[in-house]
């Protein structure tokens, strides 16, 4: 989504035999969030971006006596001083070292097994779904959020500056998997009328992917399936789960492709005993993949 941009400052700085351009820009993202404005401070040389700083209005809580525009202008002033004084030292401070991470597994379908019980009914559904994808000639991976290193979202909104989260953990691999998949499947039990904590962590931290999509032309055409189990009888038990997962899909531009909700599991215990359920799950996967 393209913001409304405004150039607030442009200063040419001769330093170290080169002529750098220091600029401050205002970018209005109110179409995404009411009143969200991002400020970008950049240093370019021959149209090459050499340094960048971004901050946005949503970063600053009511009790923080700072304003995004003030911080951007102060940063620009400090950068001008440092750049004129010693450009080599200025750029040396801005070399970022990132943690080495495993290469992500990119597949046609990604399945989030949202239950902390690796041998429960959600795992059975995840297994049916994965097998259905493979039989249709697709590639698939099953991800268990509870087994991964996922820091909780702290609502800092810094992902809206860069499209990436400030935390370097396993969410990087998860977002890579979501971005690559044509189909996202979520298997969730009902825990206190909503999704389990590990799955909620993943959903909250996926806000960084929403930010990435907002700042760039994100992928379209992805579909999402929901499979959920509840111990008690009645569809009302799924109300919060389906709303949370609908918001998750909507936030990431994923089109809902259906859901299968299984109640009374406390009485049934093993969902493999429910006539026709495996077929319903497999058919839902096949329809979503268009195969």
Q: pLDDT below 50 for ≥5 consecutive residues: which ranges?
A: none
Q: What is the total number of structural domains? A: 2
Average pLDDT, all residues: 93
CATH class of the largest domain: Alpha Beta
Largest sheet: 5 strands, parallel
Order of helices and strands, N to C? EEEEHHEHEHHEHHEHEHH
Arrangement of strands in the largest sheet: 6-5-7-8-9
Distance between the termini: 32 Å
Proportion in β-strands: 15-25%
Quick synopsis:
With 291 residues, this protein is an alpha/beta fold. It has ten helices and nine strands.
Tell me what the structure shows.
The structure is a single chain. The protein has a five-stranded parallel beta sheet, with helices on both faces. Strands 1-2-3-4 form a four-stranded antiparallel beta sheet. The chain has 291 residues and is an alpha/beta fold. The chain starts with a strand and ends with a helix. The chain has two domains: 89 residues, no CATH class; 181 residues, Rossmann fold. Helix 3 packs across helix 10. Helix 3 links the parallel strand 5 and strand 6. Helix content is 35%, strand content 25%.
């Amino acid at each position: 989504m393209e913001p409304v941009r405004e150039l607030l400052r442009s200063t040419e700085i001769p330093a170290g035999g080169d002529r750098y351009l220091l600029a401050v820009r205002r970018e209005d993202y109110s179409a995404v969030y009411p009143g969200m404005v991002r400020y970008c401070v950049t240093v370019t040389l021959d149209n090459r971006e050499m340094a960048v700083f971004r901050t946005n209005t949503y970063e600053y809580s009511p009790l923080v006596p700072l304003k995004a525009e003030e911080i951007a202008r102060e940063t620009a002033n400090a950068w001008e001083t440092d750049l004129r004084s010693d450009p080599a030292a200025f750029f040396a401070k801005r070399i970022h070292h990132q943690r080495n991470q495993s290469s992500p597994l990119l597949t046609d379908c990604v399945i989030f097994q949202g239950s902390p019980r690796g041998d429960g009914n959600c795992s059975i559904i995840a297994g049916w779904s994965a097998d259905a994808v493979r039989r249709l000639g697709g590639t698939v991976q099953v991800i268990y959020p509870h087994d991964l290193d996922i820091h909780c979202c702290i609502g800092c909104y810094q992902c809206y500056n860069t499209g990436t989260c400030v935390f370097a953990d396993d969410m990087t691999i998860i977002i890579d998997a979501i971005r690559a998949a044509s189909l996202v499947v979520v298997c969730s039990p009902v825990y206190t009328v909503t999704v389990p904590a590990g799955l909620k962590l993943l959903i909250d931290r996926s806000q960084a992917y929403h930010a990435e999509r907002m700042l760039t032309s994100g992928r379209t055409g992805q579909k999402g399936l929901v499979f959920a189990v509840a111990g008690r009888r009645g569809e009302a038990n799924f109300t919060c789960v389906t709303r949370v997962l609908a918001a998750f899909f909507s936030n990431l531009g994923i089109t809902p492709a259906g859901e299968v909700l299984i109640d009374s599991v406390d009485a049934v215990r093993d969902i493999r005993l429910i006539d026709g359920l495996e077929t319903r799950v497999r058919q839902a996967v096949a329809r979503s993949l268009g195969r």
